[in-house]
Specification:
This protein is mostly helical. It is 70% helix and 0% strand. The chain is built from 22 helices and no strands. Helix 1 (13-24) crosses helix 8.
Amino acid sequence: MAENNQLQRGLKERHVQMIAIGGAIGVGLFLGSAQTINMAGPGILVTYGIAGIIIFFIMRALGEMAVEFPVAGAFSAYANDFVGPFHGFLVGCMYWVEWTVIAMAELTAMAIYVNFWFPDFPQWASTLIFLGLLTLANLTAASLFGEMEFWFAIIKVVTILAMILIGACMILFGLGNGGEAIGFSNLTSHGGFFPNGARGVFDALVMVAFAFIGVELIGITAGEAENPRKVIPKAINTVIYRILIFYIGALFVIMCLYPWDEIGTTGSPFVLTFSKLGIAAAAGIINFVVLTAALSSCNSGLYSCGRMLYNLSVHNQAPKMFGKISKHHVPANAIVFTSALVLIGVIINYVMPDKAFTYLTSVSSFCAIYAWGMITLTQMKFRKGLSEGQKKNLAFKMPFYPFSNILTLIVLVVILAAMAAHESTRIAIPVGLAFMIVFTAAYYIFGLNKQPAEKRLHEISHD
């Protein structure tokens, strides 16, 4: 046991910056892009633009509180203090479910990626090896988690930038196309820019929302960042640029290069782009990149679940064992407990291999939407509780408050409606609501409503 039961600020600025980038670039871009393009055609750029603005507002809402109160557990702690203990408990539990489910999905995906090179290697063995290594890394130190995320993010960033640059040369100068510039005609020549109308843009919202899961991890890192008042605003303010470059930029290039209605029918657009230059190992390269993206996501899941259980424990809302810090200054019990549950994902994938990934990612999307909504509402409650002097002196204000909050909540409701409209994602709503009912019942059955849920955040000192 550490001499004091506190997490250590071991995450450097470069770690937080790359965690922010890694959180905004997931497997959804590499594997899910073809599916979203088929839903909306080139109009998917509008979907990502709308979602990007909303994500930016959510991050600014979180950032306003995280800069004033850089604590582990972030928005669960804020909801506990500014909205009420029950809301802090419920959003913490749902966020824990979100990342546990994501880790389950990504762990299984990793085994599939390994089989690309080693078809006869047992998937269960890959699962155990990866989970064991990631658990060990998370138990070692927060700085090791940060270092791993740094290099995972570097791999993703380099790959996407290379694809954008190569694609731009194909579009403008005919690189790999016999010197004949491909141009921009594919954006409009196959049914127009909105071939499936507004419905296509609407239908793609759920998949786009899933692609952005993880951006709020910046807030979770605030409790272990070396200089949170400096690095958190810097990381959050670049979210909108990362979305413009990595998502909209990459998809714009892809849809210029290939007719949108053919994307996904002949392989990954990333593989096709590299293959066009004569790179024989293109499929292997992208498989490696996607493997690291899945590793990054699972790694983030173990990290965030550990910190969220720790936060719930110090608020007397989870077993005390989860609030204990190891000699390496990490919530070891919370991490090990989450890792054990992640193994359930292997069983789920064995029982329903064809539908497991879609079901798991849909449930995680529901949990993420709930968490984003609570972040937005909590910031509104936080701001209302301040005096005029405190509001004026906030270091990192939410822009366009409260109109940005209201717009964000409206779009989140629309995403839920899109989720309910699709048969493949509809199951997430009853499953997500069932989790909420179970946690609510537990809150009252175990008397957590009678526990002295201490408010750990102090009033803002400046007035």
